[in-house]
Structure formats: C-alpha cells, structure tokens
Amino acid sequence: MNKPKMATEKGSSRVLMLLGQLERLNGEAVVTDIEAIRQVTGKILHLIQTQEKTRKEIMTKGSSGMEVILTSLENTRDLQTILNILCILNELLTVGGGRRVGVFVSKGGTAIVLQLLVQSGKEASPSEELMLHLHSLLAKVGPKDRKFGIKARLNGALNVTVNLLKQNLQNHKLLLPCLQVLRVYSSNSVNAVSLGKSGVVELMFKVIGPYSKKNTTLLKVALDTLAALLKSKMNARRAVDRAHVPALLAIYQDWHRNDTRHRHMLIRKSILGCIKNITNIKLGRKAFIDADGMRILYNTSAECLPVRTLDPLVNTSSLIMRKCFPKNRLPLPTIKSVFHHPLQHVPASGPVAQLYSQPPGVDDVVDESDDNEDTEVDTENDTENEEDEKDPRNDDIETDINKLRSRQVLTRPFEELRVYERFFREFSEDFQVKPPRLKDTPVDLDSISISKAPESKLELELVQGLSQLLLDASQSVNGGCGGEGPQEESGEQAVLEVPDTAALLPLHDPDLYLVMVKGTCSVPGYTEVAYPDYFGHVAPNFREHILERVYGVQRSKIFQDIERLIHPTDILDKVVYDLDFCPVIDDGECLKFNSQFESGNLRKAIQVRKFEYDLVLNSDINSNHYHQWFYFEVSSMRVGVPYRFNIINCEKSNSQFNYGMQVLMYSVQDAISGSPRWVRTGSDICYYKNHFSRSSIAAGGQKGKSYYTMTFTVTFQHKDDVCYFAYHYPYTYSTLKMHLQKLRALRTPQIYYRQEQLCETLGGNCCPLLTITAMPESTGNDHICQFRNRPVVFLTARVHPGETNASWVMKGTLEFLMSSSPLAQSLRESYIFKIIPMLNPDGVINGNHRCSLSGEDLNRQWLTPSAELHPTIYHTKSLLQYLTAIGRTPLVFCDYHGHSRKKNVFMYGCSIKETVWQTNVSASSSDLQEDLGYRTLPKLLSQLAPAFSLSSCSFVVERSKESTARVVVWREIGVQRSYTMESTLCGCDQGKYKGLQIGTRELEEMGSQFCVALLRLRRLTSPLELRNHHTHLLDMESDLIETRCNITCPTTYVMEEDEPAFLEEVDYSAESDEENDPDADHAHLDPSELSQNRF
Ligand SMILES: [Zn+2]
C-alpha cells in the first residue's frame, strides 16, 4: 500500500490525517460513505482557507497530497464533494506560482477537470456554481499547461465553454473565467479555426461592444481572445466580411479620445492587436486602407508620440501601417545590373545563363501580383508540435565525419600542375649569378625594368605597358582623364590644388595613381577618377566613436515614409541621377550625383522631398542582386541644411548601421585645405524593412519579400564642395597597383621580392601574385638550403569586393613585410610569403559587392573552380595543389575578409573536434585525434592585436561553407592552419578600441600584428634547437604551449547575428510572424512588467 509519506511522520498535522482518511475512502471499491467524504473534504477546505501552512504541507515536495485529492475528484459523483475539492484546488493553485500548477498538470489534473467539465455540460441544467469553479480552475491551469489547447479539444470541452458563454452573456461573474479559458483555447491554431466556425468571433464582438469603462478586465480578456482567434486566416476573413475592421478602428479611436489619462493602454493595445492580426490577410489590409486606417493610426500615433509610456501603441500602429502600406515597385526597368559583361563561356546551368535567358519583356522587378499571398486557408496541422522544432543553429554544421577529416589528396596529376613551377623559382634559385642592381631605388618606374633576369613574360609586358602609360599620364594629369573628370565637375579647375599627400602617405602618389588607372579595365569603360582615390586618405587623428543610437530614430524615419502616402502632394519624385536612362532633370534645385568611376556604385537618385533623396544601388555585374557596397559623389549642396539619404534596395535583414556604424564621407574642400581623409559621418542612421517589394526572381524564389532602407542624414559644411560617400574606406584595384609599385621600391638587398601575374581576369586585368622572403645570408650551400626550405605562408584577400577593409589589412601586412625593422627581417628569414592581395580585381573595379564578372561569389567556387569562369580561384588553388604535390604544403593559409554584421576582428578556422562537439554525432569526439595547433595563431593574435577578439572566433566547419577557401584549403590541401580572418566594418566592443569605429590605421595595424603573430608562431613551431636561438621569447611560449594543452571546452558556435537587444526594439521587420514580433510575448503581462521590459 502506497501510504502518503507525511501521514506516518511523528506529530503529523491535522490536514495530513485528513488526507490519510481521504485516501482510505478512495481505496474503497465503491464510495458509499458520501457523508464521510463530504465531511473530510469540507474540513480540508476549511483548514486551507484558514491556515496558510496547510497548503504548504499538501504541496510539499514528495507529498502525494495532490494525487489523493485528484483521485477523489475523479471518483466522486457528489456535487458537494466536487465543489469542495475544486475549492481546495483553486486555493492551492492561487499561490505558489508555476510549481504547484506544474504538479497539478503532471498528475493529470487538467484532463480530470476537463472531463468533469464535459460530463457536467451534458446535464440539462448544470450547476452554475460548478461551472464557475471549473472555469476558474482551468483559467489558472491553462496558460501554464503547454498541451492545454489540445487536451481541451480532444476532451470535447471547447463547446461546453462556448455554449455556457452564449447563455450567460450578461452574467459577468461567470463570463470572466469562461473568457479566460477561451483565451487559452484560442491560442491553439486548430482550436481557433474550430471556435471560429462555432461563431466565437461574432460572440467576442458582442462582448466587446462600444467604449465603456465598466468591466475593463473582461473587455481586455475578450480582446485578447479575439486577437488570438483572428490569427486564423479564416476568422480574419470572417471579420472582414462582417465589416469589423472599421468597427475596430472606431473603437480604437473612441478609446484614444476618452482614455485621456492613459489608464487603459493595454486595452488600446489589445484593440490594435486585433487589427494587426486581421491585416495579416490581403483582404484585411484592403479593408484597413478602405476604412482610412492609415490616416487614423497615423494621426492617433502622432498624438501618442509625446507620451513615452504609449510607445507600445505607436510601435504596434507603426507595424500595422508598414504592413498595410501599399507595396511599391522599385523605380527600375530591371533589377539586372545596368552593365553586362559578355562571357566567353556561359555554362547553361549557371546564374548568368539564367539571368539573360529570360524572354524580353519579362518584368523582374516585381511579381505579377503586387501583393503576393497564398490562398487564405488555414493549415490544420501546424503549431501543435512546436516543441519538436530543431535547434536551427545545428542545421548547418557538418556532421559527416569523413568530410571533416582533412585529407590531403592529390586530385590532379602532377604533370598538369608542373606549369606552376614557374611561380616558385625561390625553391630552385641558386643565386650563383649575382642579381643585378638590387640597390635602393627611388620611385621610378624605370626601376622595374632593372629587375633581375626577366621574371616572366607577363611581367615584361607589364613593364613595357607601364612605361608607355607613364607618357600618357604626364598629359592626363592636366587633360585627358583628370580634365574630363571631377575637376570639371567642381568648376574650380583653376583653384584646385593637389594636397601633398605623398609626404604623409609614403605609398601614395597621385600621378602614379593616374598611371595605374589607365591600365585598369572596367566594364563601363570609366574615364573619371574619384578625388579620394587620387588625393589619398590620411587617417584622422581624432577618435570616431561608435554612434549611440538616438531613441525613436527608426520610428520617426518610418513615419516620414508613411507621410509619403498620407500627403502625396508633398512628394517631388524627381529623378536626378540615372544610369539606365541618362539625361535627367537639372533645374539647379537639387544635388548632383555621380558614381562613374572605379569602384563606384550608384544606379539612381530620386529627389523625394526638397532635402531628401532615395538612392538605388546597382546589382553586381551579370547578376540581379548583391547590393550593399556604395561609393558615389555628391555636389551642388547647400550648406547647413540636413539632407536625408535613403538607400532603398538593401537586401540583408539587419545591419551594423543599426548598431552604431556610420557611413564614410570625403570632402574635397577639406582635402584641399590640408585634410585629405575619409571621416565617419551621418546622424539618424538606421536600417529597416521598407515598402519596396522584391520580386521572387530577386529573392531566390521567395515571394512577398521586401527590400530594406538604410537611411542617414548629413549636413554639409562647405559651399561648392564635392563630397563622396562610401560604405567603407574605398580601396580600388588601381590603388593596389600603385601600392605595389611603391612597395617594390622599398626593396633592400636583404629583401627577396617578386611580383608576377598569376593570371588575367575575365575583365582583362592582371591578378598579381607576390613572393616575399629574405635573401639568403650568403650564396653558401647552407644558406641557400635554408632559403629554399623556409615554410610557406599563403595569404589572400579581397575575394569579396565590398569588403574593402580586407585590403587595408593586407596593406598593413605588406608594409610590414617590406619594412626594414629587425622583426620584419626575422619574419622574412622565417618564411616564404606567397600573397595574392586581390582575388577579385574585376569585382573591385566595377563596384560589385560580392561577385566577379561571372555573376558568382568566388568564395563559393573553391571545390571545383573553372579555369574559364573563375581564373583567379582556379590558379590560386592550383598553386596550393602544386605546393602539396612537391611536399611544401603551407604552414598557414589565411584569406582576409570583412564582416558586415559583427564587431572586432576574428578568425574562422577548421577543427573536427570542435565541429563534432557542436553536433550530436554519436561518434565519441575523444576517439578523434587532432592537433590543437590551429588555435595558436588566433590566440597569439588576441594577445598582440587590440582589435582581435578570440571569443568571436569559431572553428566549426559548416556545410554552407564547404566550398570556401578556408574549408577547401584545410580539407583538400591539408593545411591545418587554414583561416578566414574577418575584420569588422563597424568597430570594436572590447579591448583598447572598445566603443570606437574602426579606421584604416587600426586595420593596417591588424595586418602588421598578423605578421608579428606569424613570427611568434614560427618560434613555437620550429624544432627545439632552433627555438633556443630565441630564448627571449621562451617564457611566453611555454605559457602558450601550456594553454594549448588545456583547451577543455570548444568555442561557442557563433551565430550570424549576435548583437544584444536594443533599448529601442530594432523593428526592421514589418512581418507579423511571432518570431519577429516584439510584442508577442507581452500579451499576458501586467503593465508594470510591460514597462520594465520596454524601457
Ligand atoms: Zn567575405
């Protein structure tokens, strides 16, 4: 016999004795002694009502009190006993929060009470008191029992409650608990459909009635129930058909007018909740517009704005208005890039073939129906299994152990790779012929031709080409490219002085820049040069803090957007710049725009209001999306007036512009007066989903998607200025070529430096390959041998053109490598550096964000790169394959990137163990052997580089990244230390630069600290006898070696977006799905909790 534990304890209390009696009565085959059980339950109830401690005794852990009580309830047919027990349960569950209800639910209490409800409902005239108690109890239990809705439906309880409600609409005492239970029923989507069929939507409208301050609690519950029901599309349609949308708007206005002291904010919010759910369907949005909903919510919101506690109303109104805002067409003839580059080989299945195979006349800007919606039918089987949903984070992690094993396989015959031997002459160089004239030469293009034995046919061509260009350039500084370009635009040709950046920027030379531009092939055939690239950029000395977001900025921007609809006559809609149809209106009343220069990207500018412009970015060439990078010129501005700029076709769902990042601006006036520099600028910056629809062609087949707006405001300081705006510090291909020229000039007799053309790009540009190491100490055998056998470090950058920060980091690396410091010399003596500083020159030149001219992301082509379509990747991979084939697999491979959604600088690496740790793969990770060496370099960087954050690093191999450089070089080439180094576009939230936006100085520093880390890595990885030469570093090394052995837990898998919640909800989505709905969780909170959550 299973006796209650406490009944046997010494001095057991009265209530426990009574429970013991109750248990014995339950044990009888037939409960005969009704009187006895009535008496016992009555006494227990009395004790509970009068003594708080008795409740605790019953509910104490390990007690079987709840079971005994529920068994009695299940067994008895006596009304008085049932009422006693329901009262006991009500008392017990009133306090104690979730735990007590949890016990009740786990002992099957919900089903017992629901069954009792259904039985009683069958009686001709059920006891009102019984119904009241049953519903009161269910109202307490329902919200905490996840399966409540299903249990209620399966037991047939829904109709009992509904019928009771229908018969007792005036009986407020009974109405409230019934509605509370109904509210829980309705939160289940299947129940909502079925309740709708039973007329509950209509019933709720009867309960709600017109504005009245009586029974506000009841009203609130009825509104919440209605809102839950209206999530069903069928119910929403029913409400639209019966003209409830104007009714709800009228009720809302009523409350808005009468609730002057804002005591009933939650009721007002619940009314909006109903409208919000109805407008999820197309008919609802139409009814809302027809009922003048936009104006009503706009005006009421405007009146709510000054009262901060009413923010939830403004936010929900804004959400509804954005959703109902008629979708606009992006003002373009096609979303395909303005420029097309015909490819020689177009694979039929590739993106370019698909893009250009559409029959003429197909509109790719919007879908046929402007407001896409699948049939408005409820799916009956959704949302009931919500707890079965998988953790989405794990989906992308590679679980195939075989794929996780780094296997160095020679996939190509060596004969095929032998052609790459010519790029590795350092492996066979014997230096028996003294290299001619390697002395320090000043910047003189002639010096190129004096390099030792012609390095390659390609280089010779380059040399010849350059000397010819120099002649052209000497003219072009005054005329030609420079004269037709921006100088003319500013109308200040005579006054313009070139700032002497050469003195401040050792690698910069405006004249040389123009020479370089001449040799750069762009698809549009650019002839202009942007001033910032010509003058150069001197990093400012002041700090540029991460911008603190002003509260309410997004909301006010969205309201300005909504005003376009409310006051259409205020809108100018004047096209002032257009790459598609060139001639545009210029009445002198607007800004002038231009982006027709290297790396420029602006497709169209439309003056919306006097000082507000909508800007449209061009797609990557041979593609119809990937717009994020921008670089354009503005002139003819007025001084001291805030101009609002909106880039209206952004694609990503969130941006660092929501987290303190500013755009970059370059003022030519400032440059001329001695400050040639890009500065972070702009106020009122935010990024949100807008009302321009995105066609399914542009959205990868998904219908009903929208674009995002990035908005910023700038007040210009100088009259007659020419200003440039960019997403990040520009770094053009011509700049790279100029820097390489200047770096070459830094050679000393100690430096071994070679620059070759790896290959030609699709656009006809050269992809440079650098080899940097130290000259051998002597031509003696030992020294030559040491020279040839230095481990290889392979670095690449700028596969993604929009990630200009990667080039600045690379510049820092290259400058360090060419510097005369002892550390640099030591580093050169340690390694042979193979560097491809720009893997995607064509993308950079043409202002792409992500792709090459093949219209593809080159960092997704590493598994099977095509020599025709992805030459730079094909040949880079071949170089690596060659190295593996001759047994010279690099020690380190690193590809420099920029990250648009995270702060700091960090690395992604590859580790089997850390990947397995993140998954539930049964293979025990302890069986896997793995050297922890992949962690050393990031660890060193975190100690050396202030911008670097170890905690942001990840070593997980994702499926979606299996064709990236990092994963392929690790898996196929067998480089254990294969990394992607990501630099923030925004700034840092840790370390020395915490709170600051990142600038070129910090990026270049990162690049040089990367070199220092490599030097330390060399000391750690060299054989012991070699290490002893560097004893000064040994302390730190042993410390590092120790920590290498102590890694017990893996780094966390880093999600794409990791920004903390914001003071102001970053409501960049106007979608109504619960995940993105900031209001969703607040439905049942009391006002105090609500305000706490909000402010
Ligand atoms: Zn990238």
Automatic annotation (TrEMBL):
Protein name: Cytosolic carboxypeptidase 1
Alphabetical list of InterPro entries matching this protein: ARM-like (IPR011989), ARM-type_fold (IPR016024), CBPC1/4 (IPR033852), Cytosolic_carboxypeptidase (IPR050821), Pepdidase_M14_N (IPR040626), Peptidase_M14 (IPR000834)
Species name: Pygocentrus nattereri (Red-bellied piranha)
Family the entry assigns: Belongs to the peptidase M14 family.
Molecular function per GO: metallocarboxypeptidase activity; zinc ion binding
Enzyme class: hydrolase
SUPFAM superfamilies: ARM repeat, Zn-dependent exopeptidases
Residue span, Peptidase M14 domain: 729-1018
Gene3D superfamilies from the UniProt entry: 2.60.40.3120, Leucine-rich Repeat Variant, Zn peptidases
Reaction equation(s) it catalyzes: (L-glutamyl)(n+1)-gamma-L-glutamyl-L-glutamyl-[protein] + H2O = (L-glutamyl)(n)-gamma-L-glutamyl-L-glutamyl-[protein] + L-glutamate; C-terminal L-alpha-aminoacyl-L-glutamyl-L-glutamyl-[tubulin] + H2O = C-terminal L-alpha-aminoacyl-L-glutamyl-[tubulin] + L-glutamate
GO biological process: one example: proteolysis
Catalytic residues, chain numbering: E982 (proton donor/acceptor)
GO cellular component: a single term: nucleus
Pfam (any one): TPR_CCP1_N
Keywords: Carboxypeptidase, Cytoplasm, Hydrolase, Metal-binding, Metalloprotease, Mitochondrion, Nucleus, Protease, Zinc
Entry annotated with the keyword Ribosomal protein: no
EC numbers on record: 3.4.17.24
PANTHER family given in the database record: CYTOSOLIC CARBOXYPEPTIDASE (PTHR12756), CYTOSOLIC CARBOXYPEPTIDASE 1 (PTHR12756:SF24)
